[in-house]
Every structure is written in structure tokens, then in C-alpha cells.
Specification:
Blueprint lengths: L9 H4 L15 H17 L1 E9 L7 H17 L30 H14 L5 E5 L9 E9 L5 H9 L4 E3 L5 H4 L5 E9 L2 E11 L3 H16 L1
Parallel strand pairs: 1-2, 4-5
Antiparallel strand pairs: 1-3, 3-6, 5-6
Length: 228
């Protein structure tokens, strides 16, 4: 969040690379998965508000967390219980954790605050209202996100689908799943539907490999922009 350091997702704000002073920051994986489909919507229709709930894979917590899930799942299937939560505050196998991050200001976790702050910085627009709830789920790799987007203009699912079909790094699919997204560069997007009560809002489901676009791939793409 250093104002002297650009925070970059190349498909969204590659222009910010130009003012770097030796360091370019890579975004949080959760933010990257969300903004890949949301940024094109913002450019076309203007985004007023984002409400996002995440379903974050354990690989986002590191290699030990991945092994912890495997060990806990095996123990639970053998004995019906988990005796050691490992790197998690409570067992993750066959469970969902809303307290896998430090809680900070106003009851928001540091992961949720990152999503808010990084969205404002990457999009260059602090007026966007971002309301996140981050959750850790027993999935090995690839984060899933339920995203509600309120726009400044009226919008239809057909318009959003047509827009995202042409957006680099985004791939439309009927049923985006972590198993499909893991190992893939693109963010998979589906379940695009209208808000039945608000003509200026749509809902969508996005899934992305948090180790690729959420980390290593994005860093490589920044380097390619620098040398290309």
C-alpha cells in the first residue's frame, strides 16, 4: 500500500508500471481473482459497489496448509475426528473457517481489508464500495468467489457475458470449479445473472488458480510488460 509503489494487474492497470521506482507490488490472490472480471465491468458501466464472499483454497496459506488438509481428511475418514488442526485455528477438513486471518479494524480480517484497499489502488477509484467476507474452505487449490456488482448504468447478463468474452485473462464457462481452474492461467467466470430487484446489478461466480494469476503468473506478466 506504499503510495510510491505501483500495485499492478497488467490486464487492468499496466500503465502504472511506468512510475515504478524499483519496486512493483503483486496483488493479493483474492483481489486478483475478483478484479479480473470486475475491472472490465467498471470500465464499461461504472461500478458503484462490490459485495464479495470468498471460498479460498488452503494453498493460499502455504504448502504446510495443503499437507494439513490431506492429513486431517485422512484422519477424519479413519477415525471420525481430527486431533490436530495444524496450521489452522480449527480443523479445516470437512469444515469452513471464517477466522483464518487476523481480525482488525471494525471486525474485518486483514484479508478483507486487503481486498478493499487493493481494489481502490488498482482501480484508481476510492469511491467503489467494497464489502468482502473471506472464508477458507477445504479445497486444495484455486479460489472461488461469489461476486455481486452494482453498476452506475443499467446492465444485463447478456451485456456482461459479451464483455467478459472479449476480456483478456477471463474465460466464460457454465460451471466454474476449482478442479477446472487449478493449473490454468485464466479466471473462469460463470453463473452470470441479474439482480431481480435492481436493474443496475449483476451476480457472477469466479474461480481462479491463486498460485498462478493470484501470484506467480501475475508477477511474470509484470516482468513481460517491463521488458516488452
Amino acid at each position: 500500500m506504499d503510495p510510491k509503489v505501483p500495485l499492478v494487474i497488467p490486464e487492468i492497470n499496466a500503465h502504472d508500471i511506468a512510475w515504478h521506482q524499483g519496486i512493483i507490488a503483486n496483488p493479493n490472490c483474492t483481489t486478483a481473482v475478483m478484479l479480473m472480471p470486475v475491472a472490465p465491468i467498471h470500465r464499461k458501466f461504472g461500478v458503484r459497489r462490490i459485495v464479495v464472499s470468498t471460498y479460498q483454497a488452503v494453498s493460499g496459506a502455504g504448502a504446510k496448509a495443503v499437507q494439513d488438509l490431506k492429513d486431517q481428511a485422512g484422519e477424519f475418514l479413519r477415525t471420525g475426528k481430527v486431533t490436530d488442526a495444524g496450521s489452522f485455528p480449527d480443523p479445516i477438513a470437512f469444515n469452513v473457517l471464517i477466522h483464518n486471518w487476523k481480525v482488525e479494524k471494525d471486525g474485518y480480517s486483514n484479508e478483507e481489508l486487503k481486498v478493499i484497499q487493493e481494489t481502490h489502488k488498482i482501480m484508481g477509484d476510492k469511491s467503489i464500495q467494497v464489502v468482502p467476507t473471506t472464508v477458507r474452505v477445504p479445497v486444495l487449490n484455486a479460489h472461488s468467489e461469489s461476486i455481486y456488482v452494482e453498476t452506475k448504468k443499467k446492465v444485463t447478463p447478456a451485456q456482461i457475458s459479451a464483455l467478459l468474452a472479449k476480456s483478456p485473462g477471463v474465460r466464460l464457462t457454465d460451471h466454474p470449479m476449482p478442479l477446472d481452474a487449478s493449473g490454468q492461467d485464466d479466471i473462469l467466470v460463470g453463473r452470470i445473472r441479474k439482480d431481480l430487484f435492481n436493474p443496475k446489478a449483476v451476480l457472477l461466480w469466479a474461480v481462479g488458480d491463486n498460485l498462478r494469476k493470484g501470484a506467480a503468473l501475475n508477477a511474470v506478466q509484470i516482468a513481460e510488460c517491463l521488458v516488452g
